[in-house]
Automatic annotation (TrEMBL):
Organism field: Promicromonospora vindobonensis
Segments traversing the membrane: 193-212, 232-251, 296-313, 333-350, 371-391, 403-426, 457-475
Pfam family for this entry, one: CopD
Species classification: Bacteria, Bacillati, Actinomycetota, Actinomycetes, Micrococcales
Occurrences of domain Copper resistance protein D (ranges): 367-470
Protein's recorded name: CopD family protein
Chain intervals for the UniProt region annotation (Disordered): 124-165
Membrane topology recorded in Swiss-Prot or TrEMBL: Multi-pass membrane protein
Length: 477
């Protein structure tokens, strides 16, 4: 006889065990310092120079690519014309004014892209008090105690024109303007839309191939229509992401961001590859989803390309050891897609069957998918622990940084969804399989399973939204 109390106790032990493993692994493992942040500046933030300044230099912990103008210096007379260049293989960005900076207060605004494609930006200030001779030679970035920025922002990022100082409004206050913040939020929403489409497309394909059998062949085209629609959703999300990211990089200036050249300038080589793979994959999914799974080989290939684009543009792209982190990221994404897309596909299938008044063996469908989902959840948890251990520099970042707080929020929602899935597996499916329940209408069985899938789908939307903000957030801020 099935006893709910045993299920509750087993589920509680499972949740406690997973959380304990997560905390223990995060706390005890050796952490990798693989996150790009600004290390020092010359002049130092908040410092006062007694002589004119002939260059401004920023040193980073890992190589970066300047975005847009890279470094913008604003002084008493407005924006200072300067040539921006990279040095030491991208570890240092240098802005050289046409003339040494004279006495006055100066604000430096900078934008750059990390190796994983994520943009960084920040501001700092310094004062020139003297009018003596300018220092000779190159200034070495100095260590400074003050925070000079370095927060990951959302949106595309990339190739730059080192000498271009005429394109955008460079007011440092515009970097945190309502228009710029709104564009940043829209860009992250576009990322969430594209990620949701990718998970549903890949997971629905897996559902059609692993859960549906010969007796369900009339339902396969229904699931594959969901796959085609998801391909279009990915394309729409990418367009929103690129356009809004360009507006954010232009600090909310629409006129400066809508031109093709401005959008092209907002993309680094890494981002072009990441978004390009996703776009090609989305097109392949849209045109390649046919009426059968074997006939949808192009859509399957498209799902692989979209996944490769997501991995290429993630935080794991710079973490070490690369083979372990990348493998964990691939496993995490594949398992999440199988879980999320499978739940959505089952919900759509049950809903359509109920609407059309067709009979459905809900117990059989539920039992098959619960096995697949259980494996997927286990892989998601294991891969997630590996990624957290390798990406986080120190355990305190889990509660001291935006990235860490978002990760904890995501883990919390995932635990809730997992609990709902466990309830379906241990409680709902056995009930549907019972002889007494089978004597009732199949419609009621389908409705019971659909309600559970509806709850999971709603929470999974929340997980994807958090993930979009998580990918764009800085691990160190």
């Amino acid at each position: 006889m099935f006893r709910p109390s045993r299920v509750m106790h087993a589920s509680a032990r499972l949740v406690v065990g997973l959380l304990a493993a997560f905390v223990l692994a995060t706390w005890c493992a050796p952490f990798a310092s693989a996150h790009t942040k600004i290390e020092s500046t010359a002049p130092a933030a908040g410092s006062t120079s007694d002589v004119p300044v002939d260059e401004v230099a920023l040193r980073f912990t890992l190589p970066v690519t300047p975005l847009g103008d890279g470094i913008v210096v604003d002084g008493p007379a407005g924006t200072v014309a300067a040539e921006v260049a990279s040095a030491e293989g991208g570890l240092v960005l240098v802005a050289t004014p046409g003339e040494p900076l004279a006495a006055g207060d100066y604000t430096v605004s900078w934008t750059a892209a990390a190796q994983d494609g994520h943009p960084l930006e920040g501001t700092f200030g310094f004062t020139v008090a003297g009018a003596g001779p300018a220092p000779s030679g190159s200034a070495a970035p100095e260590e400074q105690p003050e925070d000079t920025g370095g927060e990951h922002t959302d949106g595309p990022h990339g190739a730059h024109d080192m000498g271009n100082m005429d394109g955008m409004d460079h007011d440092a206050m515009a970097m945190d303007s309502p228009a710029s913040n709104a564009a940043q939020a829209v860009a992250r929403l576009g990322s969430a839309v594209a990620l949701w489409g990718a998970l549903v497309a890949a997971g629905a394909l897996a559902f059609a191939g692993l859960v549906l059998r010969a007796e369900d062949r009339e339902d396969v085209p229904v699931v594959l229509r969901v796959v085609r629609g998801s391909g279009l959703l990915i394309l729409g999300g990418l367009v929103i992401h690129v356009a809004a990211g360009s507006v954010h990089l232009a600090h909310g200036d629409l006129a400066a961001a809508v031109s093709p050249s401005a959008i092209a300038d907002s993309l680094t080589d890494t981002t072009r590859w990441a978004l390009g793979l996703q776009a090609v994959g989305a097109v392949s999914i849209t045109v390649g989803a046919r009426r059968t799974v074997p006939g949808s080989w192009l859509a399957i290939l498209g799902g692989v390309l979209v996944g490769a684009g997501h991995v290429l543009g993630g935080h794991s792209n710079t973490a070490e050891p690369r083979w372990l982190v990348m493998s964990a990221d691939v496993a995490h994404l594949a398992a999440a897609a199988t879980w999320v897309g499978g739940v959505v596909a089952m919900w759509m299938l049950l809903r359509r069957r109920s609407r059309d008044g067709r009979a459905l063996d809900a117990a059989l469908i539920g039992a098959r998918f619960s096995v697949v989902a259980a494996v997927a959840v286990a892989v998601v948890g294991a891969a997630g622990v590996v990624l957290a251990v390798e990406i986080v520099d120190r355990p305190a970042q889990l509660w001291e940084s935006t990235w860490g707080l978002l990760l904890l929020a995501k883990v919390g929602v995932v635990v809730v969804v997992g609990a709902i899935g466990a309830y379906s597996h241990f409680r709902v499916v056995p009930r549907l399989e019972s002889r007494r329940f089978r004597q009732r209408s199949a419609r009621k069985a389908g409705n019971l399973l659909r309600r559970s899938a509806t709850r999971e789908t709603s929470l999974m939307v929340v997980i994807v939204l958090i993930t979009a903000w998580l990918v764009a957030a800085s691990v160190t801020d």
